[in-house]
Amino acid sequence: MTGFQIINKESSGFARRGRIDTIHGSVETPCFMPVGTKATVKGLTPKQLVDETQAQIVLANTYHLFLRPGHELIKKLGGVHKFMGWSGPMLTDSGGFQVFSLSSMRRIEEGGVTFRSPIDGSSHHLSPESSIEIQEALGADIIMAFDECTPHPATYKEARDSLELTARWAQRSKAARKREDNLLFGIIQGSTYPELRGLSLEKTVEVGFDGYALGGLSVGEGQAAMYDVVEEFGPQMPEFNPRYLMGVGTPEDLLVAVAAGLDMFDCVMPTRNARNGMYFTHRGPLTIKQARFREDPEPIDDQCDCYTCRNFSRAYLRHLFISKEILSSVLATIHNLNFYNRLMAGIRLALEANRFQQFKNNFLADYKA
Amino acid sequence: MTGFQIINKESSGFARRGRIDTIHGSVETPCFMPVGTKATVKGLTPKQLVDETQAQIVLANTYHLFLRPGHELIKKLGGVHKFMGWSGPMLTDSGGFQVFSLSSMRRIEEGGVTFRSPIDGSSHHLSPESSIEIQEALGADIIMAFDECTPHPATYKEARDSLELTARWAQRSKAARKREDNLLFGIIQGSTYPELRGLSLEKTVEVGFDGYALGGLSVGEGQAAMYDVVEEFGPQMPEFNPRYLMGVGTPEDLLVAVAAGLDMFDCVMPTRNARNGMYFTHRGPLTIKQARFREDPEPIDDQCDCYTCRNFSRAYLRHLFISKEILSSVLATIHNLNFYNRLMAGIRLALEANRFQQFKNNFLADYKA
């Protein structure tokens, strides 16, 4: 059975402890989804993802896989799970965000978006219908409606036109769905205009989805504006469906969003920053290239139990980073994903014990961004 | 106890099955040593090295670690084993080969070699005494005498002068040794001149080492010339000491060298070629970028039981390589090192059963270089 259940709800506030069931297993929420853009979480084997980072679910990018190696190929090879050797739940985005952030020469029309591939300059078209077809060919457990990711800044009129296009595309995305073994989520836009966020929420719920996402955030609007949207509209999203905050964020962002009733998160930060030598710790981020770590025999984070912290000193990790060794990216990715997934596990335990606010306050008291 | 014992010897021929004991454990021979140049076998965690590739011993490069992060730092942090999280046996080379192959502005004198660091242009000096001091600071289980790696081609006089310098340096290397918990190996030079190889062997044995290596091969002399040296001088090396063929080679090279009585091998080929998308298989090398693998659902090698072959198709591995994903290097390195280590394990089993010649012939019948 696929679906969502709420296991416990904070007695005061909006945070909730839930579970999403898919045919590839369950996801305990609140959860973080590591980003596996091109059907690989950069640097880690699926075995490491499970054994060393406690990942429950992986996100892959429709846009990238559509362009290379192509969804027909992945379908022919048994779907994206089998292709990448990941047997747990997966989510694919719709490609909407990447079309807007990565492609040149894009042309947006009612029908869909025409754009050029950054790989070879070839011309491609994505529409609500083709996005759903591609995602169902890939075979993820959770798929996303095709949206226009409203750029920031946008005028009120631009944001309104954009959310209305997204609402029409939401209807078409839902109609295009053919499989019954996945969950289809709608995406709420509306930029930073509360009235438009409300309107987009209303229109998206009207279409009716298995889950709902806040999109178009973390695109330059700043933390305060993002928190305003999350805190106002998180609690207004349908209570009995999963709530997904797309592309966010820092550990603090996740705590704020969980408090606002959000359940699911994805972000490239733990993986991308890992490759740049930035480690998350319970005291805040640590930049390993700094000279002060040259002879440091201590682990990255003395409260961390990950493979990297159990086995390697800051001095060694600095050596690997400065020497541009592949293992630097691998060990930092293990640590950062484990940090994120442990944070979410801590949040879940706290929610079960009705002490989430205390957990959040304790975490933030130590954490210096 | 450190030392070497021969467990079984082929009834005809020179191949032998042995064991090297070190304070960090035993190495069953014949063995292959993955190259961990900068205190990391590129892309793999020590856990993957053990669990997924069956590595017994790792080689690290004195030259690289001397330049960065420095042997004093590594010593301060507890030695190279602790530094890189590898608890098994380790070998360090003397730095001689890298000084000649990687450094510019080198000046060779009786005392040692002055050279410039390729990292920052700074000037450094290596001598038999400092090489041994550095290696003992790193703390490897097997260390190498400092030699001059005779370039190819070399005139008879150049090769003779060079091997005599190496012989004098061998004496000084031995005298410089301070620790008693490691094994010190001497290196035989002499280019491709049989008379000079014989002379170098004689002079090196005269100094007296715990093991002996054939150096200065695989430097451009060609396979036939290399085989001539290995087949003539392998059997002449002291019988009751480990025999190490440095920097060699292909699977065929290893079989030929084992037949000539060699016990130990190292080569960057399985690891470097992995990063270039070349996989070893029992039928010969496979270049994964080729278009014919685009939709291929089969594993790299249908006779391989490694993590990569158990979980991923050629189509996926091609996708990773073409997409320049880190995981391409990781999965190919796992496969290639497992291939090399399985080959050596097969050789050892065959030697125990007195059927090495048959094993070698069977392997080479399938393998197309």
CATH topology of the largest domain in chain A: TIM Barrel
Shape of chain A: globular
C-alpha Rg of chain A (nearest Å):
20 Å
Query: What oligomeric state do these chains adopt?
Result: homodimer
Secondary structure category of chain A: alpha/beta
What is the CATH homology-level superfamily of the largest domain in chain A? Answer: Queuine tRNA-ribosyltransferase-like
Could you name the CATH class of the largest domain in chain A?
Answer: Alpha Beta
SSE diagram, text form:
The structure is a homodimer of 369-residue chains.
Chain A: E1 3-9, E2 16-22, E3 25-29, E4 31-33, H1 46-53, E5 58-60, H2 62-67, H3 71-76, H4 80-84, E6 90-92, H5 96-102, E7 104-108, E8 113-116, E9 123-126, H6 128-138, E10 142-144, H7 156-176, E11 183-188, H8 194-207, E12 211-214, H9 223-233, E13 243-245, H10 251-259, E14 264-266, H11 269-275, E15 278-279, E16 286-287, H12 307-311, H13 314-322, H14 326-352, H15 356-366
Parallel strand pairs in A: 4-14, 5-6, 6-10, 10-11, 11-12, 12-13, 13-14
Antiparallel strand pairs in A: 1-2, 2-3, 7-8, 8-9, 15-16
Description:
Two copies of one chain form a homodimer. Chain A is of the alpha/beta class. The first copy, chain A, has helices spanning 46-53, 62-67, 71-76, 80-84, 96-102, 128-138, 156-176, 194-207, 223-233, 251-259, 269-275, 307-311, 314-322, 326-352, 356-366, and strands spanning 3-9, 16-22, 25-29, 31-33, 58-60, 90-92, 104-108, 113-116, 123-126, 142-144, 183-188, 211-214, 243-245, 264-266, 278-279, 286-287. The first copy, chain A, folds into two domains: 3-266, Alpha-Beta Barrel (TIM Barrel); 268-369, no CATH class. Chain A is built from 15 helices and 16 strands. An eight-stranded parallel β-sheet of chain A has the order 4-14-13-12-11-10-6-5. Chain A has a three-stranded antiparallel β-sheet with strand order 1-2-3. In chain A, α7 (156-176) links the parallel β10 (142-144) and β11. In chain A, α7 (156-176) packs parallel to α8 (194-207). Chain A is globular, with a radius of gyration of 20 Å. Chain A binds chain B through residues 38-40, 42-48, 68-69, 73, 76-78, 83-85, 294-295, 297, 307, 311-313, 315-316, 318-320, 322-323, 325-327, 329-331, and chain B through 38-40, 42-48, 68-69, 73, 76-78, 83-85, 294-295, 297, 307, 311-313, 315-316, 318-320, 322-323, 325-327, 329-331.
